[in-house]
Amino acid sequence: MTSLRMDMGEGKGEEKEKGIIAHFPPLIAAQLDYLLTRSPLPIKVEQVSYGSRNARYADRFTLLLPCCLDYIKWDVIYNSQYPWAAPDIIFGLDDDNFQPLSFTGEGQETSQSIWGIFCDWKIKDPSGLLRLILELRNLYMGYQRKRVEELDDPRLKFEISTIIPREVIFPVRKRQSEMPSAPQLKLVASTTLKELFDIEDVTLPVWLDGMCMAEYIPNLEENLRAQVSEAIASVNSRRLFIEALVPHFGRPLEAETVFCRRVSILAASGNFSFLVHLTLPIQFPKQQPILTFQSSQHFDSQGMPITSRLYADYPWSPRWDVSEMTQRIFEFIVEECVNFKKFCSDALQLHR
Fold first, then answer.
1. Which residues pair with 305 in a beta bridge?
2. Residues 197-228, buried b or exposed e (16+ Cβ, 10 A)?
3. How many Å is the Cα radius of gyration of the chain?
4. Is 0.90 topped by the overall pTM?
């Protein structure tokens, strides 16, 4: 059978997932939808393929599964003519020796679990694909651990034995020195957590000479707990800030109320009315809100509202209480709206 490949472009998370799922027949679509929305891991779909040129529906796709510091690619192949059958899974080119259904000994229980998923496969149970992929990934991690254990390196074996539940990559050479170098660590967060907490700004604890992972990981976890607690406190601060806008501007036109990152208010100066969009950073109040003005009366040649530059240069101090913060923002908007009105009028002259 020929295969027509289609790369999945960028887009917002939910919209992109719906676009992907729409290419599959209902029975397969339900399985894929369950996997993308219920997985505890940030699994992605990279490609969607059709089994033949005249196929109405796609029936195969490439999954990107997080594994240590990287993603591994597995192809999932259904048959659109027999969508009730379990899919085939094709592993990466470098994993020819990974044969999960033929494992014995230590991997026997997991192998039996996978066989059980295949034997009890019910296409109307949407959780089947997710359970299969997670079981295979667990076995794959065991396979990789076994490969590491086969190395003749006492130091590496010791480190691995102390972090059994973890996923960490060490700079493996022919033989590790007695004084280990720092491991490569990569923090992975779900989309929801990223709205709360910016992992790119996390400061990792210092790796000291002679330290092992059993000593380092508890310090890292304590550090992360403290930073997450600070992020949660920032959500509460942002919520109080949004509430403090009401005495100056009335109720917001729109506000994101889960993480309190965005709010839009209506302002007016004489007969000139405009919107002010405020974006509250994760590090609020250490970092001040970003303001954008949007006219409700002036539009460009494409019919789009005229907007201002981003404002982040107004008076601000994280030590102020929220009433002082919103008062200073109100005063800045009163002063700046004159310039914005002139900017809108000048822009209209340019578009004529």
1. 299
2. beeeeeeebebeeeeebeebbeebeeebeebe
3. 27
4. no
Q: Where are the alpha helices (H) located in 42-127, listed in sequence order?
A: 108-119
Distance (Å, rounded) from C-alpha 339 to C-alpha 349? 16
Report the alpha-carbon distance of residue 191 to residue 195 in Å, rounded: 7
Read out DSSP for 213-278?
HHHHHHHHHHHHHHHHHHHHHHHHHHHHHHHHTHHHH-S-SEE--SS--EEEEEEEETTEEEEEEE
Query: d(Cα 301, Cα 350) in Å, to the nearest integer?
Result: 10
The token pair at 303 is 């019919």
333: number of Cβ within 10 Å: 21
Number of Cβ atoms within 10 Å of the Cβ of 194: 14
Taking only the tens place, the pLDDT of each residue in 128-156 is 999 999 999 988 888 887 887 777 777 76
170: three-class secondary structure by DSSP: coil
d(CA 62, CA 59): 11
HSE-CB of 106 using CA atoms within 13 angstroms: 8
- Report pLDDT for 108: 43
Task: Show the beta-strand stretches assigned E in the chain.
Answer: 4-7, 44-50, 60-67, 70-77, 88-90, 254-255, 262-269, 272-279, 290-299, 305-307
- Report the chain's mean pLDDT, rounded to a whole number: 82
CA distance 190 to 166: 17
The tens digit of pLDDT for each residue in 46-69 reads 889 888 888 888 889 999 998 876
Tell the residue number behind the tokens 């000479």, with chain if given.
Answer: 209
